[in-house]
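Example record

One chain of 403 residues, shown exactly as stored in the release files.
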Amino acid sequence: MKINMRPATKLRHAHTPDRIGIYRIPHATAGHVLHVVLRRNRKIFTKRFWEHRCGGEAAALQMAQAWRDTIVAKHAPISLAQFCSILRRNNTSGIAGVARREKRYSTRLGEDVTNEYWIARIPRCDGTTFSRSFPVALLGEVEAKSLAIAAREQGLAELDGALFRAQMQPVLVSSRAHMVALEAMLNQPAERRALRAQERALGERERQARREVAAETLRAADARRLAYLAAPSNRTGVPYIGRYQTKGGTGNWRVSIERAGRKYRKTFSDSVFGGADSALAAAETWRDTIFRDIPTPRIAEVVSRINITNTSGTAGVFYSHPSGKTKNGSWVARSPQVKGSTMRSKRFSVEKYGREGALALAVAARAAFTAELAGRRSLHHRAVWQMQQSLARVEPQDPIHPT
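Predicted structure tokens for this chain:
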């Protein structure tokens, strides 16, 4: 039998026992961070403690040690016997630390000789290892293997609970107060998340309340708008038709309409049509014919008309001169004015986008505003709305968003 000695394993890191597993790493902008890395039973535990968040290097080290000590307390280090019992990939015997070897050499006479034997590698508590060999030629294949396995098992049993790499195991230095401080610090993110969740919920309730108030305000405005549109547009209560008395005591009905920039006027006398009712019916028929032949223009058509004071070439787009606080003005796009709807505007700074770029953005914004009104008729007066309802013979439509 042959015994081989091997020196103890060297320390991988020159850390003091209280700082084993804790690494101080510099950061480009945030100072330093303490990175804790522990390996327990093939599982890696890692956590970072930023010094600027913990209150300095000493406080961060205290928190890192406390967290490391909690992990060590929950996950005991592996024993040397357990580590030596791990079966490696290249093992062919089925028993960790037991292998079959062959040694070939030539004698002085030139003969090739092969010695076969089973070897058991046996660790010691001080970190050294030795091996015992059992020749197959002397003991036989089965006996040599059995003796090697027995020697290996006896060697592991004599380790007496020694830890694997005991010199690299951290020393527990944290007190109960340190553990309480660590738990409070680790709970802070959860507390902050809960507080933010409460703030978000409160903000959402406030926004919902504002939305409900705005919706109620809009409903009240719609009701007022509908009442306004349903009210008589003139003294007779008949849209675009007025009543006049002549000197002779008879009366007549006069139709006065402006459509597509042209004025239409016509009088219907009671004496000609055989009475006031017949004259009114004739006036309404003529008025309705004008409305059918000349439809109400679309809002998009009306709002695209350029007045004489426009300087941008696009309706609803104008230049706003700089105020006392700014050096450059801005181009502004304003939404078309529609009764019952709030006007909106978008401003594009010349300093930010340039004069041509700001103008182009304002023109595009005005086009977007106008596109929202696609298909809607221009209701510049309640008499128009009343006429459309009368001609369509349907229930009154939405006065704010008519078709």
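Notes: Residues 1-13, 394-403 have pLDDT under 50 and may be disordered.
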